[in-house]
Protein backbone atom coordinates (compact mmCIF):
# COMPACT_ATOMS: atom_id res chain seq x y z
CA UNK A 1 0.00 0.00 0.00
CA UNK A 2 2.85 2.38 0.84
CA UNK A 3 4.50 1.63 -2.51
CA UNK A 4 1.31 2.42 -4.42
CA UNK A 5 0.87 5.66 -2.47
CA UNK A 6 4.41 6.72 -3.32
CA UNK A 7 3.89 6.01 -7.00
CA UNK A 8 0.73 8.11 -7.06
CA UNK A 9 2.10 11.02 -5.06
CA UNK A 10 2.47 14.37 -6.78
CA UNK A 11 5.68 16.08 -5.66
CA UNK A 12 7.24 18.89 -7.64
CA UNK A 13 8.68 17.22 -10.71
CA UNK A 14 12.29 17.21 -11.78
CA UNK A 15 11.10 18.06 -15.29
CA UNK A 16 7.95 19.59 -16.66
CA UNK A 17 5.82 17.99 -19.35
CA UNK A 18 7.18 18.78 -22.80
CA UNK A 19 5.04 21.59 -24.27
CA UNK A 20 3.66 21.21 -27.76
CA UNK A 21 0.80 22.14 -30.06
CA UNK A 22 -1.64 20.37 -32.34
CA UNK A 23 -1.34 21.55 -35.93
CA UNK A 24 -4.01 21.07 -38.58
CA UNK A 25 -3.23 18.95 -41.63
CA UNK A 26 0.32 18.20 -42.75
CA UNK A 27 2.03 21.57 -42.28
CA UNK A 28 4.35 23.25 -44.74
CA UNK A 29 7.25 25.55 -43.87
CA UNK A 30 5.07 28.54 -42.95
CA UNK A 31 2.90 26.57 -40.51
CA UNK A 32 5.96 24.93 -39.01
CA UNK A 33 7.50 28.37 -38.49
CA UNK A 34 4.34 29.48 -36.72
CA UNK A 35 4.38 26.46 -34.45
CA UNK A 36 8.06 26.89 -33.66
CA UNK A 37 7.54 30.58 -32.84
CA UNK A 38 5.43 29.59 -29.84
CA UNK A 39 8.40 27.78 -28.31
CA UNK A 40 6.68 24.41 -28.77
CA UNK A 41 9.02 21.43 -28.65
CA UNK A 42 6.53 18.97 -30.09
CA UNK A 43 3.77 19.01 -32.71
CA UNK A 44 0.99 16.51 -33.26
CA UNK A 45 -0.20 15.49 -36.72
CA UNK A 46 -2.79 13.07 -38.13
CA UNK A 47 -1.90 10.41 -40.68
CA UNK A 48 -5.04 8.98 -42.27
CA UNK A 49 -5.03 5.54 -43.81
CA UNK A 50 -7.11 6.64 -46.80
CA UNK A 51 -4.47 9.27 -47.62
CA UNK A 52 -1.61 6.78 -47.63
CA UNK A 53 0.78 6.51 -49.39
CA UNK A 54 -0.24 9.50 -51.53
CA UNK A 55 0.87 11.95 -48.81
CA UNK A 56 4.00 10.09 -47.74
CA UNK A 57 6.34 12.72 -49.17
CA UNK A 58 4.41 15.57 -47.53
CA UNK A 59 4.50 13.75 -44.20
CA UNK A 60 8.24 13.15 -44.43
CA UNK A 61 8.81 16.82 -45.24
CA UNK A 62 6.71 17.88 -42.24
CA UNK A 63 8.57 15.55 -39.87
CA UNK A 64 11.96 16.64 -41.18
CA UNK A 65 10.93 20.29 -41.12
CA UNK A 66 9.74 20.05 -37.52
CA UNK A 67 12.97 18.35 -36.55
CA UNK A 68 15.00 21.11 -38.21
CA UNK A 69 13.10 23.64 -36.09
CA UNK A 70 13.75 21.79 -32.83
CA UNK A 71 10.37 20.07 -32.60
CA UNK A 72 9.60 16.39 -32.27
CA UNK A 73 6.52 14.89 -33.87
CA UNK A 74 3.72 12.81 -32.41
CA UNK A 75 1.70 11.08 -35.12
CA UNK A 76 -1.88 9.86 -34.89
CA UNK A 77 -2.50 6.79 -37.04
CA UNK A 78 -6.16 6.63 -37.91
CA UNK A 79 -8.36 4.40 -40.06
CA UNK A 80 -11.57 5.11 -41.91
CA UNK A 81 -13.82 3.45 -39.31
CA UNK A 82 -13.31 1.15 -36.35
CA UNK A 83 -15.39 -1.99 -36.92
CA UNK A 84 -14.64 -2.03 -40.65
CA UNK A 85 -10.90 -1.78 -40.16
CA UNK A 86 -9.01 -5.01 -40.72
CA UNK A 87 -6.31 -5.26 -38.02
CA UNK A 88 -3.77 -6.85 -40.32
CA UNK A 89 -4.26 -4.18 -42.99
CA UNK A 90 -3.99 -1.44 -40.39
CA UNK A 91 -0.83 -3.02 -39.01
CA UNK A 92 0.78 -2.95 -42.46
CA UNK A 93 -0.23 0.71 -42.84
CA UNK A 94 1.28 1.55 -39.44
CA UNK A 95 4.52 -0.17 -40.33
CA UNK A 96 4.79 1.61 -43.66
CA UNK A 97 4.23 5.00 -42.03
CA UNK A 98 6.80 4.28 -39.32
CA UNK A 99 9.42 3.20 -41.84
CA UNK A 100 8.85 6.29 -43.98
CA UNK A 101 8.99 8.58 -40.96
CA UNK A 102 12.22 7.01 -39.72
CA UNK A 103 13.82 7.99 -43.05
CA UNK A 104 12.83 11.60 -42.25
CA UNK A 105 14.43 11.50 -38.80
CA UNK A 106 11.83 9.57 -36.83
CA UNK A 107 8.87 10.46 -34.65
CA UNK A 108 8.66 10.85 -30.89
CA UNK A 109 5.58 8.65 -30.62
CA UNK A 110 2.70 7.10 -32.54
CA UNK A 111 -0.86 7.09 -31.23
CA UNK A 112 -2.80 4.11 -32.48
CA UNK A 113 -6.11 5.73 -33.36
CA UNK A 114 -7.70 8.91 -32.01
CA UNK A 115 -10.26 8.63 -29.18
CA UNK A 116 -11.24 5.01 -29.89
CA UNK A 117 -13.38 5.03 -26.75
CA UNK A 118 -16.10 7.18 -28.37
CA UNK A 119 -18.29 6.46 -31.42
CA UNK A 120 -17.42 9.78 -33.10
CA UNK A 121 -13.90 8.72 -34.00
CA UNK A 122 -14.32 4.98 -33.76
CA UNK A 123 -16.94 5.04 -36.49
CA UNK A 124 -19.67 2.95 -34.85
CA UNK A 125 -20.41 1.20 -31.59
CA UNK A 126 -17.23 1.17 -29.53
CA UNK A 127 -15.58 -2.26 -29.55
CA UNK A 128 -12.66 -2.61 -27.13
CA UNK A 129 -11.80 -6.12 -28.30
CA UNK A 130 -11.55 -5.04 -31.94
CA UNK A 131 -9.49 -2.00 -31.00
CA UNK A 132 -7.06 -4.20 -29.07
CA UNK A 133 -6.65 -6.41 -32.16
CA UNK A 134 -5.77 -3.30 -34.17
CA UNK A 135 -3.32 -2.18 -31.48
CA UNK A 136 -1.66 -5.59 -31.35
CA UNK A 137 -1.26 -5.63 -35.11
CA UNK A 138 0.17 -2.12 -35.28
CA UNK A 139 2.53 -2.05 -32.29
CA UNK A 140 5.22 -4.51 -33.46
CA UNK A 141 5.29 -2.99 -36.94
CA UNK A 142 5.70 0.54 -35.53
CA UNK A 143 8.52 -0.70 -33.29
CA UNK A 144 10.23 -2.36 -36.23
CA UNK A 145 9.76 0.64 -38.52
CA UNK A 146 10.76 3.42 -36.09
CA UNK A 147 12.49 1.73 -33.13
CA UNK A 148 13.15 4.86 -31.06
CA UNK A 149 9.52 5.98 -31.04
CA UNK A 150 6.95 5.13 -28.39
CA UNK A 151 3.70 3.33 -29.17
CA UNK A 152 0.84 5.08 -27.39
CA UNK A 153 -2.57 3.74 -26.53
CA UNK A 154 -5.14 5.69 -28.54
CA UNK A 155 -5.96 8.80 -26.50
CA UNK A 156 -9.09 8.58 -24.39
CA UNK A 157 -11.86 11.15 -24.55
CA UNK A 158 -11.32 12.77 -21.20
CA UNK A 159 -9.63 10.61 -18.60
CA UNK A 160 -11.56 7.44 -19.37
CA UNK A 161 -10.43 5.03 -16.67
CA UNK A 162 -13.16 2.50 -17.48
CA UNK A 163 -11.86 2.21 -21.04
CA UNK A 164 -8.31 1.78 -19.81
CA UNK A 165 -9.38 -1.01 -17.45
CA UNK A 166 -11.10 -2.73 -20.37
CA UNK A 167 -7.96 -2.51 -22.49
CA UNK A 168 -5.99 -4.18 -19.71
CA UNK A 169 -8.64 -6.87 -19.31
CA UNK A 170 -8.26 -7.68 -23.00
CA UNK A 171 -4.55 -8.32 -22.50
CA UNK A 172 -3.09 -5.35 -24.36
CA UNK A 173 -0.54 -4.33 -21.75
CA UNK A 174 2.52 -5.26 -23.81
CA UNK A 175 1.23 -3.49 -26.93
CA UNK A 176 1.70 0.09 -25.74
CA UNK A 177 4.52 2.08 -24.15
CA UNK A 178 2.41 4.93 -22.79
CA UNK A 179 -1.17 6.07 -22.27
CA UNK A 180 -2.50 9.13 -24.09
CA UNK A 181 -5.38 11.26 -22.79
CA UNK A 182 -7.37 14.27 -23.97
CA UNK A 183 -8.73 16.88 -21.59
CA UNK A 184 -10.14 19.45 -24.04
CA UNK A 185 -13.53 17.75 -23.83
CA UNK A 186 -17.12 18.12 -22.63
CA UNK A 187 -17.18 21.92 -23.05
CA UNK A 188 -14.57 22.22 -20.31
CA UNK A 189 -14.84 25.58 -18.57
CA UNK A 190 -13.59 24.77 -15.06
CA UNK A 191 -9.94 25.63 -14.32
CA UNK A 192 -7.42 22.78 -14.08
CA UNK A 193 -7.40 22.69 -10.29
CA UNK A 194 -11.18 22.19 -10.04
CA UNK A 195 -12.44 18.62 -9.99
CA UNK A 196 -15.27 16.33 -9.07
CA UNK A 197 -15.05 12.83 -7.64
CA UNK A 198 -16.88 9.72 -8.80
CA UNK A 199 -16.83 6.76 -6.43
CA UNK A 200 -13.98 8.36 -4.56
CA UNK A 201 -11.79 8.98 -7.64
CA UNK A 202 -11.31 12.17 -9.65
CA UNK A 203 -13.81 11.98 -12.49
CA UNK A 204 -13.29 11.51 -16.20
CA UNK A 205 -14.19 15.05 -17.23
CA UNK A 206 -11.95 16.83 -14.72
CA UNK A 207 -8.53 17.93 -15.94
CA UNK A 208 -6.88 16.22 -12.97
CA UNK A 209 -8.61 12.95 -13.83
CA UNK A 210 -5.30 11.78 -15.26
CA UNK A 211 -4.49 10.91 -11.65
CA UNK A 212 -7.21 8.26 -11.82
CA UNK A 213 -5.72 6.97 -15.07
CA UNK A 214 -2.41 6.70 -13.27
CA UNK A 215 -4.05 4.67 -10.51
CA UNK A 216 -5.35 2.18 -13.10
CA UNK A 217 -1.89 1.88 -14.65
CA UNK A 218 -0.25 1.28 -11.27
CA UNK A 219 -2.91 -1.28 -10.34
CA UNK A 220 -2.04 -3.21 -13.51
CA UNK A 221 1.71 -3.19 -12.96
CA UNK A 222 2.45 -0.33 -15.37
CA UNK A 223 3.96 2.19 -12.96
CA UNK A 224 6.95 2.67 -15.27
CA UNK A 225 4.80 3.79 -18.18
CA UNK A 226 3.98 7.43 -18.67
CA UNK A 227 0.96 9.53 -19.53
CA UNK A 228 0.98 11.71 -22.63
CA UNK A 229 -1.62 14.51 -22.66
CA UNK A 230 -1.82 15.00 -26.39
CA UNK A 231 -4.76 17.40 -26.30
CA UNK A 232 -5.44 19.95 -23.58
CA UNK A 233 -7.26 23.19 -24.04
CA UNK A 234 -10.11 25.58 -23.35
CA UNK A 235 -12.28 27.06 -26.06
CA UNK A 236 -13.04 30.77 -26.22
CA UNK A 237 -16.44 30.14 -27.77
CA UNK A 238 -19.18 32.48 -26.56
CA UNK A 239 -22.13 30.17 -27.26
CA UNK A 240 -23.82 27.61 -24.97
CA UNK A 241 -22.41 24.09 -25.03
CA UNK A 242 -23.94 22.24 -27.98
CA UNK A 243 -22.81 18.64 -27.50
CA UNK A 244 -22.61 15.85 -24.99
CA UNK A 245 -24.28 15.61 -21.60
CA UNK A 246 -23.80 19.34 -20.96
CA UNK A 247 -25.55 20.54 -24.13
CA UNK A 248 -27.52 23.68 -23.30
CA UNK A 249 -26.55 23.51 -19.61
CA UNK A 250 -23.34 25.55 -19.50
CA UNK A 251 -21.17 27.80 -21.70
CA UNK A 252 -19.07 26.22 -24.43
CA UNK A 253 -16.01 28.31 -23.60
CA UNK A 254 -14.23 30.81 -21.41
CA UNK A 255 -12.94 34.33 -21.95
CA UNK A 256 -9.62 34.80 -23.70
CA UNK A 257 -8.09 35.98 -20.43
CA UNK A 258 -9.35 32.89 -18.63
CA UNK A 259 -8.06 30.65 -21.42
CA UNK A 260 -4.59 32.07 -20.86
CA UNK A 261 -4.83 31.68 -17.09
CA UNK A 262 -6.04 28.09 -17.42
CA UNK A 263 -3.19 27.30 -19.80
CA UNK A 264 -0.56 28.48 -17.34
CA UNK A 265 -2.24 26.64 -14.48
CA UNK A 266 -2.55 23.44 -16.54
CA UNK A 267 1.17 23.27 -17.26
CA UNK A 268 1.88 24.04 -13.61
CA UNK A 269 -0.33 21.07 -12.69
CA UNK A 270 1.40 18.77 -15.16
CA UNK A 271 4.82 19.78 -13.83
CA UNK A 272 3.83 18.43 -10.42
CA UNK A 273 3.23 14.97 -11.87
CA UNK A 274 6.46 13.71 -13.39
CA UNK A 275 4.77 10.71 -14.99
CA UNK A 276 3.05 13.12 -17.43
CA UNK A 277 5.76 13.64 -20.02
CA UNK A 278 3.99 15.59 -22.74
CA UNK A 279 1.35 18.33 -22.85
CA UNK A 280 0.12 19.39 -26.28
CA UNK A 281 -2.21 22.32 -26.55
CA UNK A 282 -5.22 21.93 -28.80
CA UNK A 283 -4.75 23.82 -31.02
CA UNK A 284 -2.43 26.31 -32.73
CA UNK A 285 -5.07 28.19 -34.72
CA UNK A 286 -8.79 28.78 -34.52
CA UNK A 287 -10.67 27.17 -37.38
CA UNK A 288 -14.08 27.37 -39.00
CA UNK A 289 -16.83 24.95 -39.88
CA UNK A 290 -16.54 22.54 -36.93
CA UNK A 291 -18.99 24.28 -34.58
CA UNK A 292 -18.47 27.28 -32.34
CA UNK A 293 -16.80 25.41 -29.48
CA UNK A 294 -14.45 23.36 -31.65
CA UNK A 295 -13.52 26.36 -33.80
CA UNK A 296 -12.16 28.47 -30.93
CA UNK A 297 -9.47 26.47 -29.10
CA UNK A 298 -6.55 28.16 -30.87
CA UNK A 299 -3.64 30.14 -29.49
CA UNK A 300 -4.29 32.41 -32.45
CA UNK A 301 -7.55 33.74 -33.86
CA UNK A 302 -8.65 32.78 -37.35
CA UNK A 303 -7.11 35.96 -38.78
CA UNK A 304 -3.72 35.00 -37.32
CA UNK A 305 -3.74 37.50 -34.47
CA UNK A 306 -2.54 36.20 -31.15
CA UNK A 307 -4.75 35.56 -28.15
CA UNK A 308 -3.41 36.08 -24.61
CA UNK A 309 -3.01 32.28 -24.51
CA UNK A 310 -0.27 32.53 -27.15
CA UNK A 311 1.84 34.66 -24.82
CA UNK A 312 1.03 32.34 -21.89
CA UNK A 313 2.12 29.31 -23.90
CA UNK A 314 5.28 31.04 -25.07
CA UNK A 315 6.16 31.87 -21.45
CA UNK A 316 5.62 28.25 -20.36
CA UNK A 317 7.61 26.86 -23.29
CA UNK A 318 10.58 29.19 -22.88
CA UNK A 319 10.66 29.83 -19.12
CA UNK A 320 8.90 26.80 -17.65
CA UNK A 321 5.54 26.57 -15.86
CA UNK A 322 4.79 29.07 -13.11
CA UNK A 323 5.43 27.83 -9.56
CA UNK A 324 2.63 26.96 -7.18
CA UNK A 325 0.23 24.29 -6.10
CA UNK A 326 -2.47 22.57 -8.13
CA UNK A 327 -5.83 21.83 -6.61
CA UNK A 328 -6.85 20.72 -3.17
CA UNK A 329 -5.77 17.09 -3.14
CA UNK A 330 -4.89 16.78 0.54
CA UNK A 331 -7.26 15.02 2.92
CA UNK A 332 -8.09 16.30 6.42
CA UNK A 333 -5.83 15.39 9.32
CA UNK A 334 -7.60 13.40 12.00
CA UNK A 335 -6.93 13.22 15.74
CA UNK A 336 -8.85 10.46 17.44
CA UNK A 337 -8.99 11.57 21.05
CA UNK A 338 -11.25 8.83 22.35
CA UNK A 339 -11.31 5.94 22.64
CA UNK A 340 -7.66 5.08 23.06
CA UNK A 341 -6.28 2.00 21.34
CA UNK A 342 -7.04 -1.21 23.23
CA UNK A 343 -9.43 0.61 25.53
CA UNK A 344 -11.47 -1.83 27.65
CA UNK A 345 -15.11 -0.96 28.21
CA UNK A 346 -18.31 -2.59 29.36
CA UNK A 347 -20.97 0.08 28.92
CA UNK A 348 -21.40 3.22 26.80
CA UNK A 349 -18.34 4.40 24.89
CA UNK A 350 -17.18 7.99 24.45
CA UNK A 351 -16.16 8.87 20.87
CA UNK A 352 -14.28 12.11 20.25
CA UNK A 353 -12.29 13.28 17.20
CA UNK A 354 -10.96 16.41 15.51
CA UNK A 355 -10.34 16.95 11.80
CA UNK A 356 -8.35 19.86 10.40
CA UNK A 357 -8.15 21.01 6.77
CA UNK A 358 -7.34 24.44 5.24
CA UNK A 359 -10.39 24.20 2.97
CA UNK A 360 -12.73 23.16 5.79
CA UNK A 361 -14.31 19.92 6.93
CA UNK A 362 -17.52 18.74 5.32
CA UNK A 363 -18.24 15.57 7.28
CA UNK A 364 -16.95 13.42 10.13
CA UNK A 365 -18.26 9.88 10.49
CA UNK A 366 -17.85 7.41 13.34
CA UNK A 367 -18.05 3.70 12.46
CA UNK A 368 -17.99 0.44 14.36
CA UNK A 369 -16.65 -2.59 12.48
CA UNK A 370 -17.41 -0.82 9.18
CA UNK A 371 -21.01 0.14 10.08
CA UNK A 372 -21.90 3.81 10.49
CA UNK A 373 -22.66 4.99 14.01
CA UNK A 374 -23.27 8.66 13.18
CA UNK A 375 -22.42 11.37 10.63
CA UNK A 376 -21.60 14.92 11.74
CA UNK A 377 -22.14 17.63 9.10
CA UNK A 378 -23.04 21.30 8.73
CA UNK A 379 -22.71 23.40 11.87
CA UNK A 380 -21.52 20.36 13.84
CA UNK A 381 -18.17 20.26 12.02
CA UNK A 382 -15.46 22.77 11.20
CA UNK A 383 -11.72 22.57 10.80
CA UNK A 384 -10.26 22.02 14.24
CA UNK A 385 -13.61 21.61 16.00
CA UNK A 386 -13.92 18.45 18.08
CA UNK A 387 -16.99 16.28 17.67
CA UNK A 388 -18.10 14.11 20.59
CA UNK A 389 -20.61 11.33 21.09
CA UNK A 390 -21.48 9.27 24.14
CA UNK A 391 -22.44 6.12 22.25
CA UNK A 392 -24.96 4.03 24.11
CA UNK A 393 -25.01 1.41 21.37
CA UNK A 394 -21.68 0.13 22.68
CA UNK A 395 -23.62 -1.61 25.45
CA UNK A 396 -25.08 -4.01 22.87
CA UNK A 397 -21.75 -5.10 21.39
CA UNK A 398 -20.67 -8.66 22.00
CA UNK A 399 -17.60 -9.18 24.19
CA UNK A 400 -14.31 -9.14 22.33
CA UNK A 401 -12.31 -6.84 20.04
CA UNK A 402 -13.98 -4.23 17.82
CA UNK A 403 -12.71 -1.56 15.43
CA UNK A 404 -13.70 2.10 15.85
CA UNK A 405 -13.11 4.16 12.69
CA UNK A 406 -13.30 7.89 12.01
CA UNK A 407 -13.72 9.11 8.43
CA UNK A 408 -13.26 12.81 7.55
CA UNK A 409 -14.07 14.51 4.25
CA UNK A 410 -13.27 18.03 3.07
CA UNK A 411 -15.43 19.98 0.55
CA UNK A 412 -13.53 18.35 -2.37
CA UNK A 413 -14.27 14.90 -0.94
CA UNK A 414 -10.65 14.23 -0.10
CA UNK A 415 -10.99 11.53 2.52
CA UNK A 416 -8.88 10.39 5.45
CA UNK A 417 -9.44 7.50 7.84
CA UNK A 418 -8.21 6.71 11.34
CA UNK A 419 -8.98 3.54 13.29
CA UNK A 420 -8.32 1.98 16.69
CA UNK A 421 -9.22 -1.37 18.20
CA UNK A 422 -11.07 -1.58 21.51
CA UNK A 423 -12.15 -4.51 23.69
CA UNK A 424 -15.62 -5.10 25.11
CA UNK A 425 -15.54 -6.90 28.44
CA UNK A 426 -18.30 -8.31 30.55
CA UNK A 427 -19.84 -5.73 32.87
Write structural notes for this entry.
The chain is α/β, with parallel strands linked by helices. It is built from 10 helices and 18 strands. The strands form 4 sheets. Strands 1-2-3-4-5-6-9-10 form an 8-stranded parallel β-barrel, surrounded by 6 helices. α9 (256-271) runs parallel beside α10 (308-319). The radius of gyration is 25 Å and the shape is elongated. The relative contact order is 0.11.
The SS-based structural class is alpha/beta
- Average pLDDT rating: 94
CATH topology-level fold name of the largest domain: TIM Barrel
- What is the CA-CA span between the terminal residues? 39 Å
What is the chain-wise order of helices and strands?
Answer: HEHEHEHEHHEHEEEHEHEHEEEEEEEE
Strand residues, percent: 25-35%
Main sheet specs: 8 strands, parallel, barrel
**Which runs of at least 5 residues are low in confidence (pLDDT < 50)?**
1-14
- Count the domains: 2
Count the beta strands: 18
The total of helices stands at 10
Helix coverage percent of residues?
25-40%
> What is the CATH top level name of the largest domain?
Alpha Beta
* Shape, principal axes of CA atoms: elongated
Strand order of the largest sheet: 1-2-3-4-5-6-9-10
**Annotated CATH architecture of the largest domain:** Alpha-Beta Barrel
Amino acid sequence: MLVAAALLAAPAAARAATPGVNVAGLPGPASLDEAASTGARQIRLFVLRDGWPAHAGTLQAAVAGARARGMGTILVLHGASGPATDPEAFGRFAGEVASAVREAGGAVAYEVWNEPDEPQFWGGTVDVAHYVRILRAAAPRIRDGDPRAKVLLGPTTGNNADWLRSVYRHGARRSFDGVAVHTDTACLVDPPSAFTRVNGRIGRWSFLGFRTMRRVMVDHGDARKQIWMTELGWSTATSPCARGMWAGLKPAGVTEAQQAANLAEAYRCLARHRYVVSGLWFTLDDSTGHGDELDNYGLRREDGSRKPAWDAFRAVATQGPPPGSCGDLSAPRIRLHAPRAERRFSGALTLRATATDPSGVARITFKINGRTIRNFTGADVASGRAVRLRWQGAKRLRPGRHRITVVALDPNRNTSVRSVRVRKVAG
